[in-house]
Design brief:
heterotrimer, A mainly alpha, B mainly alpha, C mainly alpha, A: 3 helices, B: mainly alpha
Amino acid sequence: MPEWLFWTGGGLVAAGALLAIIGAIGVLRFPDVYTRIHAASITDTGGAGLVILGLALLAGLTPTTLKLLLVWIFIMLATPAAANALANAAFGSGHSPWSNGKRIVREETKGGGQ
Amino acid sequence: MSLLTHVNYFAVVLLMVAGLYIVFSSGNLVRRMIGLALFQTSTGLFYISLAKVAGGTAPIRVEPDSETARELSSRVDPGYAAQYAIDGVVYSNPLPHVLILTAIVVGVATLAVGLAIAARVREAYGTLDAGEIADADRKAGRGPVP
Amino acid sequence: MTVLSAPLISLIVDVALLAMLLVIAVSIAVTRSLLASILLMSVYSLIVAVWFVVLDAPDVAFTEAVVGAGVSTIVLLGATLLARAETEKRNWRNIIVPLLVALGTGAILLYAVTGLPEFGDAASPANQHVGRGYLETTPEEIGVPNVVTAVLASYRGFDTLGETVVIFAAGIGVALMLGFGERSLAGREPVISPRNGNHHVVLRVVAKLLIPLIALFAFYVQFHGDLGAGGGFQAGVILAVAVVLHALVFGLRDTMAAVKPGFARGVAALGVLLYAGVGVVCIINGGDFLDYDRLFTPDIEAQIPDWILPSDKPHHWGQHFGILLVELGVLLTVAATMVTIFYGFAGRLTDDPQESGT
């Protein structure tokens, strides 16, 4: 494995791990459900995505690389959709977004807008 | 014997204790089922911990003298490998894996049966609390009277 | 010596995961909300799965991830909805006495643990004898690389047949108690219906993309089970999860139209029949029950054209074919049983307010 490939892959994995830590802090520190979903979603897509891309580079050009890329595509599709569904469900069940300490009152009563 | 060489087993025992405590302390039938699931998982952890062989790899036989085999055998000490390796590679024990693999799937099936019973109990008694169910039985003159 | 010869990094990961598991287990014991404990249980299963990978058990990790974090969470949530989640009332007597009993048991177990061989000891009785025997003889006798599959489907095939029957019986038990989901077809609106989630447009689009991929992945796991981690149990649960996802996004009624409850019941029985049938064929051909080497008598083998079975066929042809059929039986039974169980719980959840009492 060339030197530069090792360092690029390792750097991506480290960046992903860093994003995961930042996301975890965000989940703990953010004020309401929507900002927390945002933090968790970044961890999932960004953090896990970067780690998998890094591992794909580290694996060299083998069938493992292809499998990792497929996993990466799956994560890129699934986790944003899950975060969206979660936020949608939170909105549907009447959680108001946090805004500078003031509560925003929802005008719509049913559904989240088709 | 030191803490480090048995850390897995100690942790498994603590998880078992947590499961057991949930089963005993909770009156809610669904929560009791969760406690049982926790207990069952800790048994699985114990088996898999026993099956681990130091320096070993997953029990999937690699082609002898292939690149993977050479890389795996380079990780272990030659003297150790001479004693425990099979075709140059040290593997973990597959048997507990098989037992726990099937036990997990059987476990979720039996969990479903338990929860189905709990759901029917809720329909018949209007509650999931074991104490209240016993009270209702006593009032109706059914079941064991303590 | 044994622990130090293992990479230090895996020990660190091991201890970190154990610490997480302990924190989650205590949280489950402490929390009063039923919903929170179910979700914590799901997280717990996922971390257990990661731990299994660290301990060289990818097959088990696979199963735990799909079953623990997927199916059992769904079943628990279904039961909670049926039971109209109650908050728990507690008093001190209900905490002290169980705590003492549990801690007492724990103390005895901790004492017993000190007598166990070291973690990772290759010379321990458990890791010598039969487990090592399977590793040594699998290439000559069975001829598949994944020893776990070889032991599961061939060496201990009888055991696995019993487990498949247990799963089938559990499915029947749930169906007898909760019904096959027909209630929701008989006019009353199921709780899991598109009416209750109509605005999830993004979810619908992505689910439409993912459901076929999940089903395809299930078959990959099924047929790759000889070579790597995977097999009938894992694939069956993944296939069932695809059906469950369809129901959650598109509504139970649409799913029941696609995969009929009666069809699921039939397939579950067919799986057990296929498994046991392979064993019976082996007996008819003069072997023992589930002795796959006798699956084909020589005169039948001679009739198979050359392009299917070359004359220089691999030595373990019967074993390969037997494992394939048996794993297929496991796949059918597990997938159909999980779907039946899901239908049982989900089909009983109707929007009818009169539903709670019978």
